[in-house]
Design a protein that fits this description.
Elements lengths: L7 E4 L3 H12 L4 E4 L3 H11 L5 E3 L3 H6 L6 E4 L5 H10 L8 E4 L5 H12 L4 E8 L1 H7 L2 E4 L3 H14 L18 H29 L5 H12 L6 H11 L22 H12 L4 H14 L1 H7 L12 H37 L5 H7 L11 H10 L10 H24 L4 H14 L5 H12 L3 E2 L6 E4 L7 E4 L1
Helix pairs in contact: 1-6, 8-11, 8-12, 8-14, 9-10, 11-12, 12-18, 14-17, 14-18, 15-16
């Protein structure tokens, strides 16, 4: 076996790892490949060796020896203890300046810990978020690398070569920020993905139950939407799913799939971390909870007989008008979900001192990833034009569009409530919009209650300082310092 010739190495050759290794090879890089089960390494080289140059390694030492300096080693194994085990196996074989890359869906706090531990050993650790699934890993994903600037100088050119390319030819990858920044941004990406999918599902439910459309008709509706401002990967595949007929039964595919959605945890992480940061991501949270509700079959069965309205489909002309309103509601709610996600990224960046550029994040999501959408160009432009932009809703263009959509948005929610159609993500998105634009919120009463039962103090609108009211006796205010 040739030594020290591989420019990149991949250990962990399940589907994602194999496809990523093939992507590197197909782009002209010599790739060292390794797997705990040697048979997978052999099978990969035998089946896909014609795609490029692979160096098969049977042991950890052979794998490390095959890599040119500085060594670049990508770990593609299950997140958690499995990743730590691989790091413990390989780190002692490496030298200062070498780079270990974790391409799995790791929790960003684990990435921060690993980066610190390996930095103390003179090694670079890069947490890389990869979006695009199996196809993206092979043909070009969106790649979100964290870690040191030195590590990106070594690794970046390779990632830029294999990443997806936006319509303008820009690689859908860039250095996101230090330590866990890449995995944090990937986590929020997945949170937005949850919200986007739930909003699309609610739009489908409304078109099915209120407009009375068939799945095939809804597929055509989504195809038409995908030719406009909702142009995105998720809208595109929604039309494909809805148009598909089950071969075994001849029924619409969507009607033979159990209505219990599963999840792998990244959406849940997004909500948990948002709570820690004090960032309202209500649309994302409702999407996570909607999946949870769908999975509680016994609870749903017990509640099925509860009183409430049943949907009554509209006539053809009214149904088409309603469908146009649903498009407005979907678009407005989608803006809110991205607004909440970018707010969380900015808050995380400030909390951890990462210096993440929101415009750059929008740019690298324009291709390859699951939430790629045409309007990400506009999100990038909005943040580039105003680096201090506090919210997408503060951008004149998005504010004008969401303002124009709000009446239809509200009418859709009214129809949903009257006909008993659950639309938690639509409703949460509108509530968020209304909360932000409100002159005053009932939080003043909440603070009064907290001061009454817990002496938690409150601030006043007419003077500086914190105050507490003596709720028994003469109700006099006491200023606290």
């Amino acid at each position: 076996m040739s030594s020290s010739t591989a420019q990149i190495g991949v250990t962990g050759l399940a589907v994602m790892g194999s496809n990523l290794a093939r992507n590197f090879a197909r782009n002209g890089f010599t790739v060292a490949v390794h797997n705990r089960t040697a048979a997978k390494t052999t099978a990969l080289v035998e089946e896909f060796g014609h795609e490029g140059t692979f160096v098969a390694a049977g042991s950890a030492k052979e794998f490390v020896d095959a890599l040119e300096r500085p060594r670049r080693l990508i770990i593609m194994v299950k997140a958690g203890e499995a990743t730590d085990a691989v790091i413990r196996e390989f780190a002692p074989l490496l030298e200062p300046g070498d780079v270990i890359i974790d391409g799995g869906n790791a929790h960003f706090e684990d990435t921060r810990r690993r980066e610190k531990e390996l930095r103390e050993q003179g090694l670079h650790f890069v947490g890389v978020g990869i979006s695009g699934g199996e196809e993206g890993a092979l043909l070009g994903p969106s790649i979100m690398p964290g870690g040191s600037e030195e590590s990106y100088a070594s690794l970046g050119p390779l990632l830029e070569k294999i990443s997806a390319k936006a319509a303008d030819g820009t690689p859908c990858t860039s250095h996101v920020g230090p330590d866990g920044a890449g995995h944090f941004v990937k986590m929020v990406h997945n949170g937005i993905e949850y919200a986007d999918m739930q909003l699309i599902a609610e739009a489908y439910h409304l078109l099915r139950e209120v407009a009375g459309y068939s799945p095939a008709k809804i597929a055509e509706t989504f195809r038409s939407w995908n030719r406009g401002r909702l142009d995105s990967y998720l809208i595109e595949i929604t039309a494909e799913v809805l148009a598909h007929t089950d071969a075994a039964t001849g029924l619409p595919f969507v009607d033979v799939v159990a209505d219990a959605a599963e999840q792998k945890g990244t959406g849940r992480w997004t909500v948990q971390i948002a709570l820690d940061l004090g960032v309202p991501v209500s649309g994302i949270a409702e999407a996570v909870f909607a999946r949870a509700v769908s999975g509680h079959g016994e609870l749903r069965t017990a509640a099925r007989g509860l009183a409430g309205p049943k949907a009554a489909p509209l006539g053809a002309e009214a149904a088409d008008a309603f469908a146009a309103r649903v498009e407005q509601a979907l678009y407005a709610s989608k803006i809110v979900s991205y607004t909440q996600g970018f707010h969380q990224i900015q808050a995380g960046s400030e909390e951890y001192g990462w210096g993440v550029d929101p415009g750059a994040v929008a740019s690298l999501w324009r291709g390859g990833c699951i939430i790629r959408a045409a309007f990400l160009d506009r999100i990038r432009a909005a943040h580039d034009a105003r680096p201090e932009l506090p919210s997408l809703l503060a951008d004149a263009g998005f504010a004008e569009e969401i303002g124009a959509a709000q009446e239809d948005w509200r009418e859709v929610l009214v129809a949903a409530v009257r006909q008993g159609i659950p639309v938690p993500a639509f409703a949460a998105s509108l509530a968020y919009y209304d909360a932000l634009r409100s002159e005053r919120l009932p939080a003043a009463l909440t603070q009064g209650q907290r001061d009454f039962f817990g002496a938690h103090t409150y601030r006043r609108t007419d003077r500086e300082g914190s105050y507490h009211t003596l709720w028994s006796g003469d109700r006099s205010e006491v200023r606290t310092v």
